[in-house]
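U., I forgot to send this yesterday:
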Amino acid sequence: MPIRSWLTVCFLLLLSASFAQTARLSGKVANDRGEPVAGASIKILGTAIGTTTNVEGVYFLNLSTGNKYTLEISAVGYTPKSIADVDVTTTGANELNVLLETASKVSDAIVVRATSTRRQESTTSLIAFQKNNTALSSGLAADFIRRTPDRNTGEVLKRVSGASIQDNKYVVVRGLSDRYNQAMINGAQLPSSEPDKKVFSFDLVPAQMVDNIVINKTATPDLPGEFAGGLVQIRTKDVPTRKQLSVGFSVGYNTQSTFKDFTSNPRNGSDWLGFDNGSRNLPAAIPSTTAYRALPDAEKIRLTKDFPGDVYTEKTVKA
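Result:
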């Protein structure tokens, strides 16, 4: 076969492969109370492609890239919904969460159908959740977070009304400091990330993994009672669309101590790592606590003199 024919065949194979490229669309179907809808039917208008949600309300669809689709979602007891302008890519986040409203009792001759677009759906779900929530709350949805340059949840929280951030990681709600606030992730209470105070560092959670953030500002019986300012609820995405690795680096210093003289006791070379080189160990002649208590007073005084006498020596260095 001539070389030109081989090249033509290879070009056609590559062209057909590029047109046949597919990607997975995934998401979750929930009702207006945030509960998953199991067994919901999802169909692609004008095609035979379709699927149903599992017991957790999650669905998967394999679609061709480069096309726009219209999804029809229906379930028993809920108003059917059509979502237009749905597309998938091989590199983007192919996720679409759907909100179904409970069907109202109407005449059989009247058909009610809700319509929206892919861009509206995530925000609509959050607004419906806030409308049906008994507590006063503010929040952001995944589609809004995706359009921001924020890399972690600490940066995202700056955009929630009534909330501000200290040191790019600690949240302040309605002017009350971090000790008066509480954080939860997927319904689980988050422990303090600092050893000396009650606070959580929100820069630990990547923004790409967040489905929505809701800050409750009033207490309700279903929420923990450990906050006076606000309860920050983070909900992550149920179905990760792709593997990702985020690496961050930051540098800071204290203006009141860095590069300034301060007085302290002599320190060894590994103190800054939190390890001692043995200079603070007890003298070898000191017995165990039980044996020490049984010694006469004169022997105790003699052993006490084995301790080094430079405990209160001062040394001035720069931080």
